[in-house]
Design a protein that fits this description.
This protein is an alpha/beta fold. The chain has a single domain, classed as Rossmann fold, CATH 3.40.50.300. Helices cover 38% and strands 27% of the residues. The chain contains ten helices and ten strands. The chain has helices at 41-49, 71-77, 94-100, 111-121, 123-127, 138-150, 168-185, 196-202, 220-225, 227-233, and strands at residues 3-12, 15-25, 30-35, 56-61, 64-65, 79-82, 156-160, 188-193, 205-210, 213-219. It has a six-stranded mixed beta sheet, with helices on both faces. A four-stranded antiparallel beta sheet has the order 2-1-4-5, covered by helices on one side. A hairpin with a 2-residue loop joins strand 1 and strand 2. The longest helix is centred in the C-terminal third of the chain and has 18 residues, at 168-185. The chain is globular and about 45 Å long. The chain starts with a strand and ends with a helix. The structure holds adenosine-5'-triphosphate and magnesium ion. Adenosine-5'-triphosphate (ATP) is lined by residues 12, 15, 17, 35, 37-43, 84, 161, 194.
Length: 236
Amino acid sequence: MLLEVSDLRIAYGDIRAVSGVSFALEKGELVSIIGANGAGKTSILGGIMGMVPVRQGGIRFKGREMNRLASFERARAGMRLVPERARVFPRLSVQENLMTGVYGLRRKIDVARRFAWLHDLFPILRERGGQPASTLSGGEQQQLAIARALVSSPDLLLVDEVSMGLMPKLVDQVFEVLAQINREHGLTILLVEQNAMASLAISHRAYVLETGVCVFEGRAGDLLKDPKLKAAYLGE
Ligand SMILES: Nc1ncnc2c1ncn2[C@@H]1O[C@H](COP(=O)(O)OP(=O)(O)OP(=O)(O)O)[C@@H](O)[C@H]1O
Ligand SMILES: [Mg+2]
Protein backbone atom coordinates (compact mmCIF):
# COMPACT_ATOMS: atom_id res chain seq x y z
CA MET A 1 0.00 0.00 0.00
CA LEU A 2 1.22 3.48 -0.82
CA LEU A 3 -0.89 5.17 1.85
CA GLU A 4 -2.47 3.51 4.85
CA VAL A 5 -4.65 5.46 7.24
CA SER A 6 -5.91 3.57 10.24
CA ASP A 7 -8.44 4.61 12.85
CA LEU A 8 -7.86 8.30 12.22
CA ARG A 9 -9.38 10.60 14.82
CA ILE A 10 -9.33 14.38 14.59
CA ALA A 11 -11.03 16.85 16.91
CA TYR A 12 -11.04 20.59 17.33
CA GLY A 13 -11.54 21.06 21.06
CA ASP A 14 -14.83 19.34 21.71
CA ILE A 15 -15.83 19.15 18.08
CA ARG A 16 -15.17 15.73 16.69
CA ALA A 17 -14.47 16.01 13.00
CA VAL A 18 -13.15 12.53 12.20
CA SER A 19 -14.10 9.59 14.41
CA GLY A 20 -12.05 6.56 13.47
CA VAL A 21 -11.67 6.42 9.71
CA SER A 22 -9.51 3.81 7.98
CA PHE A 23 -8.63 3.55 4.33
CA ALA A 24 -5.77 2.71 2.05
CA LEU A 25 -4.55 3.47 -1.44
CA GLU A 26 -2.46 1.24 -3.60
CA LYS A 27 0.10 2.71 -5.92
CA GLY A 28 -1.60 3.77 -9.14
CA GLU A 29 -5.11 4.01 -7.71
CA LEU A 30 -7.51 6.91 -8.04
CA VAL A 31 -9.76 6.90 -4.99
CA SER A 32 -12.35 9.36 -3.78
CA ILE A 33 -13.77 10.19 -0.41
CA ILE A 34 -17.18 11.68 -0.88
CA GLY A 35 -19.25 13.41 1.74
CA ALA A 36 -21.38 16.44 2.45
CA ASN A 37 -20.38 19.75 4.04
CA GLY A 38 -18.70 19.18 7.37
CA ALA A 39 -18.30 15.43 6.90
CA GLY A 40 -14.60 15.72 7.72
CA LYS A 41 -13.01 15.54 4.29
CA THR A 42 -10.66 18.50 4.59
CA SER A 43 -9.73 17.42 8.12
CA ILE A 44 -8.66 14.00 6.82
CA LEU A 45 -6.40 15.57 4.20
CA GLY A 46 -5.05 17.99 6.82
CA GLY A 47 -4.28 15.02 9.06
CA ILE A 48 -2.48 13.19 6.27
CA MET A 49 -0.40 16.27 5.37
CA GLY A 50 0.34 17.08 9.01
CA MET A 51 -1.47 20.40 8.95
CA VAL A 52 -4.06 19.41 11.52
CA PRO A 53 -3.20 17.61 14.77
CA VAL A 54 -4.32 14.02 14.87
CA ARG A 55 -5.77 12.70 18.13
CA GLN A 56 -5.29 9.09 17.31
CA GLY A 57 -4.56 6.82 14.39
CA GLY A 58 -1.73 5.90 12.13
CA ILE A 59 -0.65 7.38 8.82
CA ARG A 60 1.81 5.31 6.84
CA PHE A 61 3.15 6.44 3.51
CA LYS A 62 5.45 4.16 1.49
CA GLY A 63 5.59 1.98 4.58
CA ARG A 64 6.90 4.82 6.70
CA GLU A 65 5.16 6.19 9.76
CA MET A 66 4.28 9.85 9.10
CA ASN A 67 2.68 10.88 12.38
CA ARG A 68 5.70 12.61 13.86
CA LEU A 69 6.82 14.31 10.68
CA ALA A 70 6.18 17.98 9.92
CA SER A 71 4.24 18.94 6.80
CA PHE A 72 7.31 19.83 4.80
CA GLU A 73 8.87 16.48 5.62
CA ARG A 74 5.75 14.69 4.41
CA ALA A 75 5.85 16.76 1.24
CA ARG A 76 9.47 15.78 0.83
CA ALA A 77 8.50 12.14 1.26
CA GLY A 78 6.41 12.60 -1.90
CA MET A 79 2.90 13.82 -1.11
CA ARG A 80 1.37 17.06 -2.29
CA LEU A 81 -1.94 18.73 -1.51
CA VAL A 82 -4.08 20.85 -3.80
CA PRO A 83 -5.96 22.68 -1.06
CA GLU A 84 -9.62 23.64 -0.97
CA ARG A 85 -10.19 26.90 -2.89
CA ALA A 86 -6.61 26.59 -3.97
CA ARG A 87 -5.04 30.00 -3.90
CA VAL A 88 -2.58 31.01 -6.51
CA PHE A 89 -0.27 33.99 -6.01
CA PRO A 90 -2.38 36.63 -7.77
CA ARG A 91 0.37 39.10 -8.67
CA LEU A 92 2.87 36.53 -9.83
CA SER A 93 2.61 35.45 -13.41
CA VAL A 94 1.28 32.03 -14.29
CA GLN A 95 4.83 30.88 -15.02
CA GLU A 96 6.13 32.31 -11.72
CA ASN A 97 3.36 30.51 -9.88
CA LEU A 98 4.56 27.27 -11.42
CA MET A 99 8.13 28.12 -10.39
CA THR A 100 7.04 28.25 -6.74
CA GLY A 101 6.49 24.51 -7.02
CA VAL A 102 10.22 24.10 -7.62
CA TYR A 103 11.46 25.89 -4.50
CA GLY A 104 12.57 23.70 -1.64
CA LEU A 105 12.91 20.57 -3.74
CA ARG A 106 15.90 18.54 -2.67
CA ARG A 107 16.15 16.34 -5.66
CA LYS A 108 17.19 17.81 -8.96
CA ILE A 109 14.49 17.92 -11.59
CA ASP A 110 14.63 18.82 -15.22
CA VAL A 111 12.50 21.94 -14.93
CA ALA A 112 12.23 22.61 -18.66
CA ARG A 113 10.96 19.10 -19.36
CA ARG A 114 8.65 19.14 -16.41
CA PHE A 115 7.10 22.44 -17.47
CA ALA A 116 6.74 21.26 -21.06
CA TRP A 117 4.80 18.27 -19.75
CA LEU A 118 2.57 20.46 -17.57
CA HIS A 119 2.00 22.85 -20.45
CA ASP A 120 0.86 19.94 -22.60
CA LEU A 121 -1.54 18.83 -19.88
CA PHE A 122 -2.84 22.36 -19.29
CA PRO A 123 -2.34 24.28 -22.56
CA ILE A 124 -3.96 27.38 -21.11
CA LEU A 125 -1.01 27.76 -18.73
CA ARG A 126 1.39 27.99 -21.66
CA GLU A 127 -0.81 30.48 -23.48
CA ARG A 128 -1.18 32.68 -20.42
CA GLY A 129 2.30 32.12 -18.99
CA GLY A 130 3.25 35.77 -18.73
CA GLN A 131 -0.04 37.01 -17.37
CA PRO A 132 -0.70 37.70 -13.68
CA ALA A 133 -2.43 34.66 -12.20
CA SER A 134 -5.25 36.91 -10.95
CA THR A 135 -6.39 37.34 -14.54
CA LEU A 136 -7.14 33.63 -14.94
CA SER A 137 -10.70 32.43 -14.53
CA GLY A 138 -11.58 30.30 -11.50
CA GLY A 139 -11.28 27.08 -13.47
CA GLU A 140 -7.96 28.13 -14.95
CA GLN A 141 -6.66 28.97 -11.48
CA GLN A 142 -7.63 25.48 -10.35
CA GLN A 143 -5.65 24.04 -13.22
CA LEU A 144 -2.69 26.20 -12.19
CA ALA A 145 -2.98 24.97 -8.60
CA ILE A 146 -2.97 21.34 -9.77
CA ALA A 147 -0.06 21.96 -12.11
CA ARG A 148 1.92 23.66 -9.34
CA ALA A 149 1.39 20.63 -7.11
CA LEU A 150 2.64 18.38 -9.91
CA VAL A 151 5.90 20.26 -10.49
CA SER A 152 7.65 18.22 -7.81
CA SER A 153 6.41 14.95 -9.36
CA PRO A 154 4.78 13.68 -6.20
CA ASP A 155 3.95 10.01 -5.68
CA LEU A 156 0.63 10.90 -4.10
CA LEU A 157 -1.61 13.83 -5.00
CA LEU A 158 -4.27 14.87 -2.49
CA VAL A 159 -7.00 16.99 -4.06
CA ASP A 160 -9.51 18.87 -1.92
CA GLU A 161 -12.79 19.64 -3.65
CA VAL A 162 -11.34 20.82 -6.90
CA SER A 163 -14.82 21.01 -8.49
CA MET A 164 -16.00 23.71 -6.10
CA GLY A 165 -17.32 26.76 -7.86
CA LEU A 166 -16.70 25.43 -11.34
CA MET A 167 -19.38 25.08 -13.93
CA PRO A 168 -20.14 21.48 -14.91
CA LYS A 169 -18.23 21.60 -18.16
CA LEU A 170 -15.09 22.76 -16.37
CA VAL A 171 -15.54 20.15 -13.66
CA ASP A 172 -15.48 17.48 -16.33
CA GLN A 173 -12.42 19.03 -17.92
CA VAL A 174 -10.43 19.22 -14.69
CA PHE A 175 -11.44 15.69 -13.70
CA GLU A 176 -10.53 14.38 -17.13
CA VAL A 177 -7.01 15.75 -16.73
CA LEU A 178 -6.72 14.10 -13.31
CA ALA A 179 -7.93 10.80 -14.78
CA GLN A 180 -5.43 11.14 -17.60
CA ILE A 181 -2.50 11.80 -15.26
CA ASN A 182 -3.55 8.74 -13.28
CA ARG A 183 -3.99 6.55 -16.33
CA GLU A 184 -0.97 7.57 -18.33
CA HIS A 185 1.52 8.34 -15.60
CA GLY A 186 0.34 6.05 -12.84
CA LEU A 187 0.04 8.90 -10.36
CA THR A 188 -1.86 7.87 -7.23
CA ILE A 189 -4.63 10.35 -6.46
CA LEU A 190 -6.91 10.81 -3.48
CA LEU A 191 -9.83 13.09 -4.27
CA VAL A 192 -12.17 14.42 -1.65
CA GLU A 193 -15.39 15.69 -3.10
CA GLN A 194 -18.98 16.69 -2.57
CA ASN A 195 -19.53 16.21 -6.26
CA ALA A 196 -20.10 12.46 -6.03
CA MET A 197 -21.11 11.89 -9.64
CA ALA A 198 -18.12 13.56 -11.23
CA SER A 199 -15.59 12.04 -8.85
CA LEU A 200 -17.03 8.51 -9.02
CA ALA A 201 -16.96 8.69 -12.79
CA ILE A 202 -13.15 8.76 -12.76
CA SER A 203 -12.42 6.81 -9.54
CA HIS A 204 -11.54 3.17 -9.10
CA ARG A 205 -12.83 3.03 -5.54
CA ALA A 206 -14.61 5.29 -3.13
CA TYR A 207 -15.30 5.85 0.53
CA VAL A 208 -18.44 7.60 1.68
CA LEU A 209 -18.01 9.76 4.75
CA GLU A 210 -20.81 10.86 7.04
CA THR A 211 -20.07 13.12 10.01
CA GLY A 212 -16.62 11.76 10.52
CA VAL A 213 -17.45 8.11 9.95
CA CYS A 214 -17.00 5.98 6.86
CA VAL A 215 -20.37 4.42 5.99
CA PHE A 216 -19.52 2.75 2.71
CA GLU A 217 -16.47 1.62 0.84
CA GLY A 218 -16.32 -0.13 -2.44
CA ARG A 219 -15.77 0.08 -6.13
CA ALA A 220 -16.94 3.31 -7.68
CA GLY A 221 -18.98 1.35 -10.23
CA ASP A 222 -20.87 -0.48 -7.48
CA LEU A 223 -21.66 2.75 -5.73
CA LEU A 224 -23.01 4.19 -8.96
CA LYS A 225 -25.23 1.11 -9.43
CA ASP A 226 -26.55 0.54 -5.91
CA PRO A 227 -30.07 2.05 -5.69
CA LYS A 228 -29.84 2.83 -1.97
CA LEU A 229 -26.50 4.54 -2.27
CA LYS A 230 -27.67 6.34 -5.36
CA ALA A 231 -30.68 7.69 -3.55
CA ALA A 232 -28.61 8.80 -0.58
CA TYR A 233 -25.56 10.26 -2.29
CA LEU A 234 -26.27 10.93 -5.89
CA GLY A 235 -29.54 12.74 -5.42
CA GLU A 236 -31.69 10.26 -7.32
N1 LIG B 1 -10.39 24.78 12.76
C1 LIG B 1 -11.54 24.27 13.17
N2 LIG B 1 -12.05 24.55 14.39
C2 LIG B 1 -13.21 24.03 14.80
N3 LIG B 1 -13.97 23.19 14.07
C3 LIG B 1 -13.52 22.88 12.86
C4 LIG B 1 -12.31 23.39 12.32
N4 LIG B 1 -12.14 22.90 11.09
C5 LIG B 1 -13.20 22.11 10.85
N5 LIG B 1 -14.05 22.09 11.91
C6 LIG B 1 -15.29 21.32 12.03
O1 LIG B 1 -14.98 19.95 11.76
C7 LIG B 1 -16.00 19.35 10.99
C8 LIG B 1 -15.39 18.80 9.71
O2 LIG B 1 -14.92 19.87 8.92
P1 LIG B 1 -14.16 19.65 7.53
O3 LIG B 1 -13.70 20.97 7.07
O4 LIG B 1 -13.17 18.58 7.68
O5 LIG B 1 -15.37 19.12 6.61
P2 LIG B 1 -15.47 18.96 5.03
O6 LIG B 1 -16.01 17.61 4.79
O7 LIG B 1 -14.19 19.31 4.40
O8 LIG B 1 -16.57 20.04 4.67
P3 LIG B 1 -16.74 20.92 3.32
O9 LIG B 1 -17.33 20.03 2.29
O10 LIG B 1 -17.70 21.99 3.73
O11 LIG B 1 -15.40 21.45 2.95
C9 LIG B 1 -17.05 20.44 10.75
O12 LIG B 1 -18.06 20.25 11.69
C10 LIG B 1 -16.29 21.72 11.00
O13 LIG B 1 -17.13 22.73 11.47
MG1 LIG C 1 -13.63 20.72 3.03
